[in-house]
Amino acid sequence: MSKVGITEVVLRDGNQSLLATRISLEDLLPAARQLDEIGYWSIESWGGATFDVCLRHLNEDPWERLKELKKAMPKTPQQMLLRGQNLVGYKHFSDQIVSKFINKSAENGIDVFRIFDALNDIENIRFSLEQVKENNKHAQAAMAYTTSPIHNIQYWIDLAKSMEDIGIDSIAIKDMAGILKPNDAYQLISKLKEELSIPIHMQTHATTGMSTATNLKAIEAGIDNIDTSISSMSMTYGHSSTETLVSMLQDTDFSLDFDLLKLDEISRYFKNIRNKYSEFEGSLKGVDVQMLVRQVPGGMLSNLESQLKQMNLEDKLEAVIQEIPRVRKDLGYLPLVTPVSQIIGAQALSNIIDGERYKKLSIELTKLISGYYGKIFGQVEDGLKEKAELEMEPIETRPADDLVDDFDQLKEDLSNFCSKNSLKDASLVDENVLSFALFPYSSTDYFKNNY
Questions:
Q1: N or C, where is the chain less crowded by C-beta within 10 Å?
Q2: How far apart are CA 83 and CA 125, in angstroms?
Q3: Contact yes or no for 403/94 (Cβ under 8 A)
Q4: Quick one: which of 251, 284, 231, 278 has its CA closest to 8?
């Protein structure tokens, strides 16, 4: 039996899940040099929310972060999470912007691109995967895992095979909510190993308390790679502990040649770092059973709670939680992952506050139903679909086909902004133009402070 590979996520998803991605580059670099000595298959160090948070909250250039982390970890492949046509943003971008972003990401240090779409619409990830291959980097397609009456094992097999047909290097099961049960993981991975000829990776969060058992059953089924996070930055909203999994596999056919003493040093370092950033900790202390009962992610709950407090409507929280799975069902059992989870949560909140279901539809929900985020696999409730179509003409094409972002125009716009604000011309660097394209407000604030 081949040994399982490990992807360490403490620098990105571990940090994002537990501390809202607030750890600065300065505090990551000392650990990065130590992590590079362990022997991981890859280290996830970029993507997801890091790009937005660097610009919005940390006054950091996300591209500089990538370059510095790559320099600190020359031995280990660097991995990022990419939202298909959304890149690291919250809307679709044109193929031109996607192509340039992937090219610059590869050029600055990304070796492995894990790419997913919130709707599991293959057409929303095809182009970005092809661009990764053109840059001679590892293209990994990820399935956003969920459960429902329509998401049976054949659905996942068919989706995985359609991803493999693109010519990718590996496939990932992305269990962002921690709802993949151990025995279900064993059955799914066993079947995928029979049907696919490419390696299979898996990420499962610890939110529901099942992640370590699920990881172990996945390994028994022949999984090729598992995501873990260093112990002092693991569990609750995060992932299973790296050291725990390494210890569990000792003296088995899957034993890993990882130095537990070196891992312990890294863990002790992050224990101090976690204390430093404790203000950004989530409230979860044990496991979140809401996920098992209603598939409502912990981060989604905390955001809703915050919104309701601001509106002095805390007493509506339980009603909104009850409404979320109803809206999800009406939309064809969509996975609750960015940006779909935000759209569904906002509509559930509106339904409760208005005292009437779908009295008014948010513009984003209307766009979602009308195809502007991609194809919905399940059946949208007829009345809801009719209401959306009265407000917006539905489309059948790939959403990005109608986008005309012009890199040269964006470059000119950024140059003009810098000139008007008496700044150095940030547009001379293509990476800056991409930051401006993805996050125009956050990036210009950054340029004002640093140029």
A1: N
A2: 8
A3: yes
A4: 231
Query: Cα(61)–Cα(53) distance, rounded to whole angstroms?
Result: 10
- The pTM score is 0.94
In tens, the pLDDT along 326-337 reads 999 999 999 988
SS (H, E, C) 121-154: CHHHCHHHHHHHHHCCCEEEEEEECCCCCCCCHH
Measured CA to CA, the distance from residue 434 to residue 310 in angstroms comes to 34
CB of 113 closer than 8 Å to CB of 138:
yes
Cα–Cα distance list, 352 to 6, 319, 320, 321 (Å): 43, 7, 6, 10
Q: Is 7 helix (H, G, I), strand (E, B) or coil?
A: strand
Spatial separation of the C-alpha atoms in residues 249 and 265, rounded to whole Å: 20
SS (H, E, C) 403-450: CCCCHHHHHHHHHHHHHHCCCCCHHHCHHHHHHHHHCHHHHHHHHHHH
The closest of 344, 350, 349 to 329, measured between CA atoms, is 344
Residue bearing tokens 């709950």: 301
CB atoms within 10 A of CB 343: 24
Alpha-carbon span 139 to 135, nearest angstrom: 10
Q: What is the pLDDT of residues 238-292, one digit of tens each?
A: 999 999 999 999 999 999 999 999 999 999 999 999 999 999 888 788 898 878 8
* Residue 34, burial from CB neighbour count under 10 angstroms (0-12, 13-18, 19+): middle
